Amino acid sequence: MSLRFELSMAAEAASRHGPRTGTLHLERSPTDTISIATPGFLKYTRRGLQPHMVREVEREVTALSAASRVQLEDFLERDFPAVGKYSEGLHRFVHMDRSELLLLDALDPTVTRRTAKATNKFLGVDSEGGTKRVTPEMFVKLVNQLKPDVYVALADYVEEPEPSATKGKRIAKSVERIGPVAGRLREGDHGLGPPFGEKLALVRHSLATLEPAKPRYMVGVSSPDQVLQAIRLGIDVFDSSYPYAVTEQGFASTAARTSTCGSSRCLTISARWWTGCTCFACRSHHRAYVHHLLMTKEMLATVLLQIHNMHCYNRFFEAVRQSLASGDFEQCAEKFLDHYGCMAGEAAGAKGVKRAFDELELLASQANSPTTKDPAQAAQRGDCQCRRLIFELVLARAALCGGHYFMELWYF
Amino acid sequence: MTISSFDSLTPIETSTSPALKFEVLAKCSTTKARASKMTLPHYTAHTPMFMPVGTMGTMKGVTTKQLEALDCHVILGNTYHLGSRPGAELLDKAGGLHKFMNWNRGLLTDSGGFQMVSLLKLANITEEGVEFENPHDGKKMMLTPEMSIGLQNSIGADIMMQLDDVVSSLTTGARVEEAMWRSIRWLDRGMAAHKRPNEQNLFPIVQGGLDPNLRTISAQELSKRDAPGYAIGGLSGGEAKDSFWRMVTLSTDVLPTCKPRYCMGVGYAEDLVVCSALGVDMYDCVFPTRTARFGNALVRTGSMSLRQGKYSDDFRPIDEDCDCPTCKNYTRAYIHTVATKETTGCHLITIHNIAFQMRLMRDIRQAIVDDRYPQFVRSFIRRRFGKTVPAWVVNALKSVNIDLTVADEDGYSAKPISEDFQREPNN
Ligand SMILES: [Zn+2]
Ligand SMILES: [Zn+2]
């Protein structure tokens, strides 16, 4: 088995930081090769399946990236995970097609607050069965047993010292722990740690010392604005935690990325979902139906939203690669970031502009699905006031950006 | 997934209504079981059939495309729920529930009355209809037989249920008789209010509690109405199972043999096998899909609680004989890790549980067509219960000439026990 990375702008990329396109080839045997175009993304999974999507449903999203990430912490119910006794590999266990690249990582990038700590001997992981210790030896043993195509070496992470740090200045020392595994780069502390602007500076610094011809995966970076900024620096691979976070807020990506299905404006029956969208959900159902499902907290709501959101996210990356190929990436990215007022995190914060793509932060603060029927959990989710505020904010932003749509920039 | 021999069979008995054609294709030579074809406006269903319940116009995160692949012929919607959300106005605009939920096969709706009486404590029944307090604004509202039909006409299901005067199956005395006669009067009002008889079928409901005389009168009265099909109602509400089956078999004895019979709210595997022997054609139950949400998978021996730690390193499928996507692709260990934790866990078990019900019904139909239903029943009961079998099952089957207490050629015989339910088989 070999992993080969082919840069289409090799000479240029070797000399400087900068956006680049390439292809990641995973060759299991001469007749069994997987190719993934970069910039691209790994499908974010929960316990080995994309959120809300069983395999038959996943297949409804056409031309989806052929690479997934699975995190070991999802399987740590016992001290030594039961899956470690399974002899047929992780692909088979989670019923992932062999034509997909599977990356194994220890931690879930969407979890931003952890109580278990890392020590010199092990990585502490919070699980339903209490804190579990993942030692490097155990991790290697599992890697040998589960046979992922790619794995990310165990690494420590930096966490904010206290919750109040979210608003104010972060005290956390911006220590980057880079885990280069066979030439692959792991960057960015699993979503924990310094604000994005600082992260970018660290990425720039780190990339200067790493071999340019190797692929670079920035873990947990997924929102369109951050993806564009990271691509500018030369990051190749991301993951799809962002569309999942969008789904969990009951949103659907639209042209302007912001339509709240929980609002009564979805009560129109005349049109299919989002005009022009060719995804399975939009082809099959009215917007009013999805609204009905959200109002009644039916599970099919998040299934359909996730299908649509993954479809849009996939097309976003297609468009990015296209614009890189045609040479107008810088121009498009600039225009896009300008519209959404989200230049490098803090700068925008200072201007008092709320970031347009904050679903991942929302996900971290209220992890319950919009279809949860448990009244206690629903209350915890802040169903009434604050949720409505979020909706209004997002809608207002859509109006603000009026006309200059995400899709126009990238798709037309 | 259909029985190939089904379509080549010559009907033994046929009834034709404007929106339903029922053809009995095979009859068991021992029991009252029959296998039939029911042509509805949206789909031709094979019976005996189980109809999964999708209260709100959706089923536990499973897409309608998956439901088709699972061989569902008819699914259920609840009128009371659909009437409050999305409401008749939106359903009219959408062109009915079929289009609203994008389901092109059969649909059946209940009258809304049962939900009203069971969900709303303050419901008050008068000759006019069911009076209740609107849970949103506290105002007094009324559901009449005419309104129930109107709402069901908006939903547009292939089969609608009459509004009936629901009394608990544990009620006795004059109230049961009153409810039985009132239900017949409400049926007549509903039939008069039905605006789409060429596109939708209205099924009357046999009532009469656990009183054999009242049941007989009810079934006789309803038979006179020449409806496209009939439902057996007011049961599976906590009554003794030995009373339940007697009411079922009494109803199927009176109702016309050329029309479909629907036993409402029944869905445990043993109930389906026994009631089919008593001549029932259609069933519905929330149990298979509801129990999936709690991590329980159905198997021929009962059910399997996949949350239990013992499954965490069990690398076998839920059921080796099941050909559903879940069993073909996943181990119990994997489902254990997702059960009750991810929505996908619920989806995977729901898919299996629906497939389980559908396969059981296909097996029942095939056994009837091959005229080996008694053998099928015996091997089913043996696997499900082992040596001791609830007495009601033994009694019900004995009434249709299957005597479980007498050893068969495989040497199997059963001992009746007084419990209505038995969790695990006893060998
Ligand atoms: Zn779409
Ligand atoms: Zn199965």
UniProtKB/TrEMBL annotation, chain A:
Classification via Pfam families: TGT
Gene3D superfamilies registered for this protein in UniProt: Queuine tRNA-ribosyltransferase-like
Positions of the tRNA-guanine(15) transglycosylase-like domain: 19-177, 193-340
Entry-linked InterPro entries: Queuine_tRNA-ribosyltrfase, TGT-like_sf, tRNA_ribo_trans-like
Domain of life: Eukaryota
SUPFAM superfamilies: tRNA-guanine transglycosylase
GO terms, biological process: tRNA modification
Name this protein carries in UniProt: tRNA-guanine transglycosylase
Organism of derivation: Linderina pennispora
Taxon lineage: Eukaryota, Fungi, Fungi incertae sedis, Zoopagomycota, Kickxellomycotina
Automatic annotation (TrEMBL), chain B:
EC number(s) per entry: 2.4.2.64
UniProt binding sites for substrate: 110-114, 164, 207, 234
Biological-process GO terms, alphabetical: tRNA modification
GO cellular component: cytosol
Catalytic reaction annotation: guanosine(34) in tRNA + queuine = queuosine(34) in tRNA + guanine
UniProt superkingdom: Eukaryota
Domain tRNA-guanine(15) transglycosylase-like: residue ranges: 31-384
Region described as RNA binding: spans on this chain: 265-271, 289-293
Keyword Glycosyltransferase annotated: yes
Active-site residues (renumbered): 110, 284
Pfam hit, one: TGT
EC primary class: transferase
Subcellular location: Cytoplasm
Binding site for Zn(2+): 322, 324, 327, 352
Classification via InterPro entries: TGT (IPR004803), TGT-like_sf (IPR036511), tRNA_ribo_trans-like (IPR002616)
Family statement: Belongs to the queuine tRNA-ribosyltransferase family.
Function: Catalytic subunit of the queuine tRNA-ribosyltransferase (TGT) that catalyzes the base-exchange of a guanine (G) residue with queuine (Q) at position 34 (anticodon wobble position) in tRNAs with GU(N) anticodons (tRNA-Asp, -Asn, -His and -Tyr), resulting in the hypermodified nucleoside queuosine (7-(((4,5-cis-dihydroxy-2-cyclopenten-1-yl)amino)methyl)-7-deazaguanosine). Catalysis occurs through a double-displacement mechanism. The nucleophile active site attacks the C1' of nucleotide 34 to detach the guanine base from the RNA, forming a covalent enzyme-RNA intermediate.
Subunit description: Heterodimer of a catalytic subunit and an accessory subunit.
Protein known as: Queuine tRNA-ribosyltransferase catalytic subunit 1
Biological source species: Linderina pennispora
Lineage per the UniProt record: Eukaryota, Fungi, Fungi incertae sedis, Zoopagomycota, Kickxellomycotina
